[in-house]
Design brief:
Layout: H1 3-6, H2 9-15, H3 25-39, E1 44-47, H4 55-60, E2 65-69, H5 72-79, E3 89-91, E4 103-108, H6 119-132, E5 133-144, E6 157-163, E7 166-173, E8 178-186, E9 193-201, H7 205-214, E10 217-223, E11 237-244, H8 247-252
Parallel strand pairs: 1-2, 1-4, 2-3, 4-5
Antiparallel strand pairs: 5-11, 6-7, 7-8, 8-9, 10-11
Protein name: Methyltransferase
Organism: Winogradskya consettensis
Keywords: Methyltransferase, Transferase
Length: about 250
């Protein structure tokens, strides 16, 4: 199933959960604060802007935000909230589309780089970020840490969430670094479940750093969350900030 089929009109309608989940103030607020600080006085480009969960509040903070988005349905949902003058969006592949101008910040949040299902494609995503950044520009990625330690030998699936009305289950292919997330939602008055699946290629932090190096970045910081908590061996996710390497240093290497 392609990304255009996964992120269809129904998925776009269900994506926004105002005040809860990834839209909860305690989740969204620190992300917007940190990105606004990193953007400074410059422009920001969001890869996979979706329905504008982060891009819209960041623009409301005074940061000029442009987005790239694959799904026209997600863009249509965003357009119900703001017009193109407030948050311009270019439709297409975030690993290939080039937006005119230069930016001080490119960012990719909530595990979305893992929607690119090949290592080569993920490297191209880094390279496309570099194309849009001037000297000292930053590329920020929010990503989960693979939880393979939860799998016992021979086990191929793990439940990551179980709550009333919803069960989340991951099936794992360690050979190809693939995860398929199965989202089962149960209606109150029915025993039938609605199933929504998404496929991902997971990336280890060290592999992500090598991708950055290949694209001309260096790691500036890594924390466990947007609030700046220390990243440790027990962290389940990370926010990594990469900076365009100084041209003189690149020439010396």
């Amino acid at each position: 199933m392609g990304q255009d089929e996964i992120w269809d009109a129904g998925a776009a309608r269900r994506y926004d959960t105002p005040g809860t989940g990834m839209f909860a103030p305690e989740t969204l607020g620190p992300a917007v604060d940190r990105l606004a600080d990193l953007a400074g006085e410059g422009r920001a480009l969001e890869f996979a802007i979706g329905t504008g969960r982060v891009g819209i509040p960041l623009a409301e903070r005074g940061v000029p935000v442009t987005g790239i988005e694959w799904s026209r349905h997600m863009v249509a949902r965003l357009r119900e909230k703001v017009d193109a003058a407030a948050v311009p969006v270019v439709e297409g592949d975030m690993a290939a589309v080039v937006v005119p101008g230069r930016f001080s910040l490119v960012y990719l949040v909530y595990n979305t780089i893992s929607n690119i299902l090949t290592q080569a494609g993920q490297v191209e995503c880094f390279r496309n970020a570099a194309r849009h950044l001037g000297p000292g520009g930053r590329f920020v990625i929010e990503l989960w840490v693979p939880e393979l330690r939860r799998l016992t030998p021979g086990q191929e699936a793990v439940v990551f969430t179980a709550e009333p009305g919803y069960i989340g289950l991951d099936t794992v292919d360690p050979l190809h670094q693939r995860v398929v997330s199965h989202h089962f939602r149960f209606e109150d008055a029915s025993e039938d479940a609605k199933v929504f699946r998404t496929e991902h290629r997971y990336i280890w932090p060290a592999e992500l750093d090598l991708m950055a190096q290949l694209a001309g970045f260096e790691l500036e910081s890594r924390h466990a969350d947007w609030s700046g908590a220390e990243f440790t061996g027990e962290s389940e996710s990370h926010v990594s900030v990469y900076r365009v390497r100084d041209a003189a240093r690149v020439n010396e290497d």
